[in-house]
Specification:
By secondary structure, the chain is mostly helical. The chain has two domains: 82 residues, Orthogonal Bundle (DNA polymerase, domain 1); 178 residues, hpI Integrase, Chain A (Orthogonal Bundle). The protein has 14 helices and three strands. A hairpin with a 4-residue loop joins strand 1 and strand 2. The protein is globular and about 60 Å long. The relative contact order is 0.10.
């Protein structure tokens, strides 16, 4: 299956224009299936191989959303294989996706965001950088991969906007709040030159070795600040994105504008945040109305 997998990943990269992170997720899922069937030839794969693989995921206590994602990947892979004449029939076509319960995205309250932003040490060049990154992510709602990929010329200080390249290399312009701009400006003057030394980098956020900070490193530092702030939830970068969207809608922003800022191609993806706001209002009502 190795040649077919390589061709599939190349198709995702060239024809579909997917990001490196998305392609890596596809690769892991397809490789997991290939190992499960002991890399047997494509022409020998049958429906039982696919259903057996999904059953093995369930035995590992993976949730239904993860199992459904693996099935979606395999469906995409086998459709590609049929089109390219690697196989004559799709072995995953008649397999139903597991039912998944819709989870509301987790987000921080405004007070929790303020508490988080007080955690980086502003007397330290790393703390100054980290504060600027957290401020910018919460101010714009961008994804962690988008945050780490920002280049110096992407951020326009005067109009207060950020050029962002998202999934599928789709470009969008996102407004940036004054506090985030101030934090980045402080980082550019008081931290970034010391981090770079004599080196040059086109990336906005860098490490002490002059390299762009990657998303795994940001994930780890954000989780550490969350623990330091004693937040009740295990803090992940996407929670800042969820907080951005929820707080905007909570204060009257229209759904279409939030969709554009988040870079969602389908507004139904953005609509999940309206459910978050509705659920919060229900909780407030139940907690405070005398006849609730």
């Amino acid at each position: 299956m190795d040649a077919e997998i390589r061709a599939f990943l190349n198709y995702l990269r060239v024809d579909k224009g997917l990001s490196k992170n998305t392609i890596e997720c596809y690769r892991r899922d397809v490789e997991g299936f290939a190992q499960f069937v002991h890399r047997k030839p494509m022409a020998q794969i049958v429906r039982d191989d696919v259903s057996g693989f999904l059953a093995s995921l369930k035995r590992r206590n993976l949730d239904s959303r993860t199992v459904a994602r693996h099935l979606a990947t395999l469906r995409h892979f086998f459709r590609f294989a049929v089109i390219e004449n690697y196989i004559t029939a799709d072995p995953a076509m008649t397999i139903e996706s597991p039912k998944t319960a819709k989870k509301l995205p987790q987000f921080l309250s405004v007070e929790q965001v303020e508490l988080l932003l007080r955690q980086p040490d502003m007397n330290d060049i790393i703390g100054i950088r980290d504060r600027a990154m957290i401020e910018l992510m919460y101010s714009t709602g961008i994804r962690v991969s988008e945050l780490c990929g920002i280049r110096l010329n992407d951020l326009k200080m005067d109009p207060g906007c950020l050029r962002c390249v998202g999934k599928g290399d789709k470009e969008r312009i996102v407004p940036v709040g004054r506090q985030a701009l101030d934090a980045v400006q402080h980082y550019l003057h008081a931290s970034r030159p010391d981090l770079l030394g004599d080196r040059i980098s086109p990336f906005l956020f860098v490490t002490p070795r002059g390299k762009p900070l990657n998303r795994i490193a940001f994930w780890a530092l954000l989780a550490a600040y969350g623990r330091k702030a004693e937040l009740p939830k295990s803090l992940k970068p996407h929670m800042l994105r969820h907080s951005f969207a929820t707080h905007l809608l909570d204060r009257g922003a229209d759904l279409r504008s939030v969709q554009m800022m988040l870079g969602h191609s389908d507004i139904s993806t953005t609509q999940i945040y309206t459910h978050v706001v509705e659920e919060r209002l229900k909780q407030v009502y139940k907690a405070h109305h005398p006849r609730a």
